[in-house]
Amino acid sequence: MKRLLLFVAAFALTSAVVAKADQTIYYNGGPNGLSGNEMTEWIQTEEFTLPTAATLNDIHFWDVGFAGSYAGSTTWIIYSDNGGNPGGVVATGSGDYARTDTGVSLYFGEEFLNDITGLNVSLLGGVEYHLGLHNGPLAHNSRDNLYWETTSFFDGVTAREWNLQLGGPWSDNLQEHAFSLTGTTTPEPSSLMLLGTGLMGLAGGVFRKLRS
Fold first, then answer.
1. Which of 36, 75, 111, 119 has the highest CB neighbour number within 10 Å of its CB?
2. Element holding 201 (H helix, E strand)
3. What is the pTM assigned to this prediction?
4. Domain 27-187 part of CATH 2.30.31
């Protein structure tokens, strides 16, 4: 009975430690105000690799456009990798997510911070994915001049784009784009077991101390 109580206590402590608040799980740099790629006629993408397994909860990115450029919703897509190009769809969704005017005016429009929230996408660590963004539903493919803003960060690989009017193929968009991902990291099973064992020992010590 005592061992059962210690196990339950250790499990509760482990769960409390593992349950983390959202944190930045990938950062591709902030906006540089220099350029962007049109994201209505095209699906614009950026590749990313997480250092460890995580649950993606939020996508944050910056776009620039004039009044009327925003189609009223944003489509997001997480692709697997296929030889450097986006491959199969891992997860996708769309909605009228939060858009905040940053107060920055550029020569090609007003800058907005977009927060796509409420996601629950499990991603592996050490695996390349591609984040795709599109202004409006995919069926909406006119050139509305809404641009995913660039960043000065460069990871050695420029991003890819898909022209919806032409039906592809994937091509190099010659840019790096500003975005970040937030979520919760997932501990490796071995690390979780070690943590649980350590906390069980700690719980046992506390139990013995209370009895003495």
1. 36
2. helix 189-211
3. 0.81
4. no
